[in-house]
Specification:
Blueprint lengths: L4 E3 L6 E3 L5 E5 L2 E5 L2 H9 L1 H5 L8
Antiparallel strand pairs: 1-2, 3-4
The structure holds zinc ion.
Zinc ion binds next to loops.
Amino acid sequence: MAEQQEMDRVCGMWIDMKEARFTSNYKGETYYFCAQECKDKFDQSPDLYMKGFEGRTI
Ligand SMILES: [Zn+2]
């Protein structure tokens, strides 16, 4: 399994890092999103998505 995937923190979808078209940088980390809409939500209130995420089950 060489595929690298990152989770879209807004909607919880898995994003293929090679095909990701919507990314955002926050505190030195790159985050991946499935759509512009998710990226916008994250950009508006990143802290909201940093918290409350770990306890979420998909
Ligand atoms: Zn999304």
